[in-house]
Amino acid sequence: MGDELSHALTASVNEGVQRLRRGWPSLLATGFVGGVDVSVGVFAAFLVLANDGSELLGALAFSIGFIALTMAGSELFTENFLLPLTAVATEKGTWRQVGRLWVGTASMNLVGGLMMVVLVLVAFPEIGPVAVEKGGAFVDTGPGLQLFVSAVLAGIVITLMTWMQTGAPMGPQLVAAVGAGFLLHYGGLAHAVVASVEVFGAVMVDDAYTAAQWPALFGVMVLGNMVGGIGLVTMVRLVQIGTHRVEAARRESVPAETDSPEDVEIDRDASIPPG
Questions:
Q1: d(CA 258, CA 239)
Q2: How far is residue 37's CA from residue 2's CA, in Å, rounded to a whole number?
Q3: Of 215, 219, 191, 220, the residue nearest 203 (C-alpha)
Q4: How many other C-beta atoms can be found within 10 angstroms of the C-beta atom of residue 273?
Q5: Residue 244 burial (10 A CB sphere; 0-12, 13-18, 19+)
Q6: Model confidence over 219-251: pLDDT tens digits?
Q7: CB proximity list for 251: less than 8 A, separation 6 or greater
Q8: Is this prediction's pTM over 0.85?
Q9: Neighbours of 154 (CB within 10 A)
Q10: Could you tell me the sign of the dihedral formed by the alpha carbons of 64, 66, 67, 73, in that order?
Q11: Closest CA relative to residue 196, chosen from 173, 220, 179
């Protein structure tokens, strides 16, 4: 168990550092395609629900989006709770870099998801009622305790998926992706990006729902995702790993690859030691 935890920590730190050191073009592009990829899963689920009505098959279809995220190297905002924070914990990254990563990824996840919603509903207007049912459910719940707790659970599920995938071969990574995707959709959990994509669909189709209702929902979901993903998974995993392993990881070097001169400047400002 000790060796497995040390390996997982090293893999997490190395991946976290690389994510933090990316330049703006790579960061924004990765976030955009992450929004597109997960929306492919939403599209698949809506197609199944519109034509078959099976929630079980719809949840399985939704996992296509998480398979795409895993195999295509794209990212969701919530996938960046664990890896970058292990880099910060081992003093190989800064909170400034984490904030930059979170804001850039989340904003472009939403842009990519919104684009996909528009394309899908124009091409397949028959799935409009499903979009209203799924997206409207979050609006009807409202930005209260129930939505917050659902978001906490979503943060736990996604961050646990990230931990399970870290340093693992592709086969186990896909198993984790399918399991997390299924649970997220079948349980109707409030993932800030996925639920926002569904709310966007409801707003497009039904005048009873408006864009003005979304920001409060998004704020509650982001907070809940962070409490679940950071507070109840990342921090607890770091405690499980132990301070001696974290200290050892601080003394290890990491790859010094960067995407652009901008990255080099960011690393210099943040005083991240080169690998």
A1: 30
A2: 35
A3: 215
A4: 11
A5: exposed
A6: 999 999 999 999 999 999 999 999 999 999 999
A7: none
A8: yes
A9: 28
A10: positive
A11: 220
* 64, burial (CB in 10 Å: exposed 0-12, middle 13-18, buried 19+): buried
Task: Look up the CATH number of the domain holding residue 74.
Answer: 1.20.1080.10
Distance CA 80, CA 61 (A): 24
Q: SS3 for 165-192, per residue? A: HCCCCHHHHHHHHHHHHHHHHHCCCCCH
**Does residue 8 sit within a domain?**
yes
Handedness of CA 185, 191, 194, 199 (dihedral sign): positive
Residue 167 lies in a domain: yes
Separation between Cα atoms, residue 191 and residue 225, nearest integer Å: 7
Tell me if 82 is assigned to some domain.
yes
Instruction: Identify whether the C-beta of residue 73 lies closer than 8 Å to the C-beta of residue 30.
Output: yes
Residue with tokens 């124009």: 122
pLDDT in tens, 139-188: 999 999 999 999 999 999 999 999 999 989 999 999 999 999 999 999 99
- Report the C-alpha dihedral over residues 104, 231, 73, 167, rounded to 10 degrees: 150
| Triad 66, 70, 73: Cα angle to 5° | 125
| Cβ–Cβ under 8 Å, residues 83 and 15 | yes
Q: What's the token pair of residue 77?
A: 């905002």
Q: Which amino acid is at 229?
A: G
Give the CA-trace dihedral at 70, 119, 218, 263, to 10 degrees: 50
Query: What total number of domains does the chain contain?
Result: 1
Q: What is the mean pLDDT of the chain?
A: 92
Residue 9 tokens, joined: 């920590």
62 falls within a domain: yes
Tokens 């990881």 appear where? 249
Q: Could you list the residue range(s) of the whole structural domain that residue 162 is in?
A: 2-254
